[in-house]
Each structure stands twice: as structure tokens, then as C-alpha cells.
Design brief:
two-stranded parallel ribbon; alpha/beta; globular; 18 helices; Endonuclease, Chain A
Length: 487
């Protein structure tokens, strides 16, 4: 009996050893950055059994090989639609500013999409104004309305948008809605699913949570985009989920969420539509052809539309590491000023190095993040980066009037990046994100004013005070830094 027990013990031990070797091998062949690889190895050996479970549930595979390969094919096919745009004059960007040129070249070469010009956009910083404008555009829609949101939470102003959408659908407008399964869980449990479907609104539950599928794809790979498309002419894009800030996560007691959205008209809507059509086909298997921006004349009036813009879309199956490379390119392009806003600051070592290097080069670098966060782990992990940033001269502002949820970067008041991507591992490597690069000094000036407004409601972190913090806080910061691949 003892020999039998001894034999099975050896079988279990050898099996466990092979499992550890297998996971380590996969970490090495993934070619992750050294800090990320080191963190994974530490987790595996520090908490062995739990560490292996974390690896399989939260590291690989991302979306599943079949879906990832399918999305790659869909993306390539839809890019063919771009060729049709070439018949329009004054469509593609022929030149860019000094600061924006490297980023626009990167996106053209890597994504196969050139920047487009002659766009008109509006910066929206007040959620009431966003909703009012959105409902108006929905009510005036003539052909189609497409939406994708990470979170749609029923209640308050969100219900007003739902009513407007239902009204348009009943008038014969083709309405499509993509909502993330995890983020919009309250929506899918509400009456609105039945009511909307009855009104002939097509609803897709993206990346549906299924216990059986956890072994085939990451359960935390999410559809994180926030986009609205109306009549192929108008688009809304930014950080705002479809929620009422007066109701959303009030139990956290951190105040209202502060968001930034842009409303855009022009050819860029076609490019955004291509991204949406890929997401739709991935989830439904049904192809919807991206619609071309419609103008009364093929030669779009430069008087009405002027801004040069570029779409940066990421996610499993899309251009690999494009968000990460775009951020690095934008930061290294800075010569005078760099301002970053993000609710979740858990950057890669490359991004930290780029930001610090910019400051050492004499660039005035400011990072604005919320003082209080809805994620306990992110709050402490973020602080592990403060010391290195402060030593290089970076100014860190802690926003005190709610949870600053805006995701934006402004370089030399000329190049703006606005969208859904946070400065964290999840947005950089995992989620479906979308960012708009804007090469326009007038818009940059408006975004700069908004950043100044954020700073006026923030407290500048004093380096002297920071470096005197207690030793136990440093331990907590470094502990949660170990889990940065999951944040």
C-alpha cells in the first residue's frame, strides 16, 4: 500500500513539474517584456498552484486561435474598402505636422490605413451635453445607427438614449448594438433587451461569458470600445460608457466619473465604420459592408472640414501592439509639452522609460490621474511607478473632484490622442480598444484648456512628501505591482 502511495506521489510530482516547465516555456516563447516575464515567473513559483491557475485563466489564449485568425481575415478584407475612398479628392492626409508625422506613418505602414483629412470635430466634456447631442443625432438619423459600448447600465439618462433608439428603429432606421457581456451584465438582465429586440434593434452580447469557454480564451478579454456611428457621417468616440454618472458606482463613494467624448463628422467615420464592421462580423458571422462617408460633392469642402485624423484600433486579431507602439511614438515626438490623463496608470516599462526620458530631455511632462480609484489593486499598483516618474521631474496631479475617467494624451499642443485605452496592461495588450489621433492645433488648444481645468481640480504630488511615505506603503505598492499583468 505504501509503495502504491509512493508511486502515485511520484506521478503527481512529475506531472506538476512538467506543467511548470510547460508554462515557463510558454512565457519565454511569448517574448513578453522582461519585467512582465519576471513577474509571471515569480507568481508561478511564489504561489505555485494558484499561479498556474492564474496563468491559464488570465494569460492565454487571448481570444482563441480560430476567432483570432478569423478576425485577421475580416480586417484584411475590410481594408479593401479603403481603396474605394481614393476616388474622393481631399480625403487622405497629404501632409502632417512635425509632431504627428511619425505616428501617422506608423499607423499607415502597420495598419494599412492612411490618415484622413477634412474632418470636423467637437470636444464634449459634460455628460449632459453628450447625451443631449447624441439623442438629437439619433432622432435625426435617416439610415442607420450603430453602437458599441463596454458598459450600458440602465437607469437615468441611459434610459433616455434607449427610448430615442427605439423610436428611431420604429421609423425604419437600421439599429445595431454591440455590448460587452461582462461590462453590461446589468443591461442583459434588464427589461431593455426584450423591449429593444421587440422594436427590431439588433443586439449582440460580445465575448459572452461562459464557464466552459474559460479554457479556450481569456475570460477577461473585453470589448472596451465606446463608439456611436450615425448615417455613416457622424461618430461619437471617447471614454464615456452609456451610464448615468449620478447613479453609476455611487457605492464606491468616489464621486461622479468625469469623461471626455468627441463628436466627429467627416471621412474618418468611414474608417471607424470598418472597425465596427469587423467587430460585428466577428460576433455574428454576418458581414456588413463599411459605408463610405457621404458628401454632396466628391470634393469635400475644406472650409467646413479641416482636421487630419487617424484611427488606431487594437485587440486580438488586429494589428499587434499597435496601441503600445503608437503611445511610444507620440511620447518620443514631444519636444515641449506632454500631458497625459488616465484613470488607471499601470504602464509597461517601455512607456515609463519613454515618459521619464521625455522629462529628462526638457519636455514639460504632466500626468493627471484620480486621487481615489474604483480599483483597490490598481490604486496601489499605480503608486509603484510614482518614484521613478517623480525623480525624472514628471509632475503628477491627483484629481480630487470625482473619478477622472478621461483617456487622453496631448503632445506639444498639436497632436491629441483621445479614445478608450487606459495606460495599463489590459488596454495595451488585451482588450478591444480604439483611439483617435488628431493632428490639429485648434483642437489641441481646446484639449489643453480642458487639461488645465482638470489640474485646477487636482493636487500636485509633492516629491519630498512622497519619498517620506512609510515603509509599509512601499511594501504594499510593490506587492500589487507583481499583479500588473492582470491589471
Amino acid at each position: 500500500m505504501n509503495n502504491c502511495h509512493h508511486f502515485y506521489s511520484w506521478i503527481v510530482f512529475i506531472g506538476y513539474l512538467l506543467l511548470i516547465v510547460n508554462v515557463n516555456f510558454k512565457i519565454f516563447i511569448k517574448k513578453k517584456t522582461n519585467p512582465v516575464s519576471n513577474i509571471w515567473i515569480f507568481i508561478l513559483y511564489f504561489i505555485p498552484l494558484f499561479g498556474i491557475m492564474i496563468w491559464f485563466f488570465f494569460s492565454e489564449p487571448y481570444l482563441g486561435k480560430r476567432k483570432t485568425n478569423l478576425l485577421k481575415k475580416i480586417w484584411k478584407k475590410n481594408l479593401v474598402q479603403i481603396k474605394k475612398i481614393k476616388y474622393y479628392k481631399n480625403f487622405f492626409s497629404k501632409k502632417n505636422s512635425r509632431v504627428a508625422l511619425p505616428l501617422f506613418k506608423l499607423c499607415k505602414n502597420r495598419q494599412g490605413i492612411s490618415g484622413v483629412t477634412n474632418n470636423k470635430l467637437e470636444l464634449l466634456k459634460n455628460y449632459k451635453k453628450v447625451i443631449k447631442s447624441l439623442i438629437k443625432d439619433i432622432s435625426l438619423a435617416k439610415k442607420n445607427i450603430e453602437m458599441v459600448f463596454y458598459i450600458w447600465q440602465p437607469g437615468g439618462i441611459a434610459d433616455e438614449v434607449a427610448k430615442a433608439l427605439i423610436s428611431s428603429s420604429k421609423k425604419g432606421i437600421n439599429c445595431r448594438l454591440i455590448l460587452d457581456s461582462a461590462g453590461s451584465i446589468k443591461f442583459f438582465k434588464s427589461k431593455w433587451v426584450y423591449v429593444m429586440k421587440k422594436a427590431n434593434i439588433k443586439i449582440v452580447e460580445a465575448l459572452k461569458i461562459n464557464v466552459l469557454k474559460t479554457f479556450f480564451r481569456r475570460i477577461d478579454s473585453r470589448q472596451h470600445r465606446k463608439v456611436v456611428l450615425i448615417d455613416n457621417n457622424i461618430s461619437y468616440i471617447g471614454s464615456m460608457n452609456l451610464v448615468d454618472p449620478n447613479l453609476f458606482k455611487q457605492y464606491c463613494k468616489i464621486g461622479q466619473w468625469i469623461d471626455l467624448m468627441i463628436r466627429v463628422e467627416g471621412p474618418i467615420v468611414t474608417t471607424i465604420g470598418i472597425v465596427y464592421s469587423c467587430d460585428w462580423e466577428l460576433e455574428t458571422g454576418k458581414k456588413i459592408l463599411p459605408k463610405l462617408f457621404i458628401s454632396k460633392n466628391k470634393e469635400i469642402s475644406k472650409k467646413n472640414y479641416s482636421t487630419s485624423m487617424q484611427v488606431i484600433a487594437s485587440g486580438p486579431g488586429y494589428t499587434k501592439q499597435i496601441i503600445h507602439q503608437s503611445l511610444l511614438t507620440a511620447i518620443y515626438s514631444a519636444k515641449n509639452q506632454l500631458t497625459i490623463t488616465t484613470p488607471y496608470l499601470v504602464p509597461s516599462s517601455d512607456l515609463v522609460h519613454a515618459i521619464c526620458t521625455a522629462s529628462y530631455r526638457g519636455v514639460n511632462v504632466s500626468i493627471i490621474i484620480p486621487k481615489n480609484n474604483d480599483s483597490f489593486m490598481v490604486k496601489w499598483a499605480s503608486r509603484s511607478f510614482f518614484s521613478e516618474l517623480l525623480k525624472s521631474g514628471v509632475k503628477i496631479y491627483l484629481f480630487e473632484k470625482g473619478l477622472l475617467h478621461s483617456k487622453s494624451i496631448l503632445v506639444d499642443k498639436q497632436l491629441s490622442l483621445v479614445g478608450t485605452a487606459n495606460l495599463d496592461m489590459r488596454s495595451l495588450w488585451l482588450n478591444f480598444e480604439i483611439t483617435i489621433a488628431i493632428d490639429d492645433k485648434k483642437f489641441g488648444k481646446k484639449l489643453s484648456y480642458l487639461h488645465d481645468e482638470y489640474i485646477s481640480k487636482s493636487k500636485l504630488l509633492d516629491p519630498k512628501y512622497w519619498f517620506l511615505r512609510s515603509y509599509w506603503k512601499k511594501i504594499i505598492e510593490n506587492f500589487f505591482y507583481l499583479f500588473s499583468p492582470l491589471l
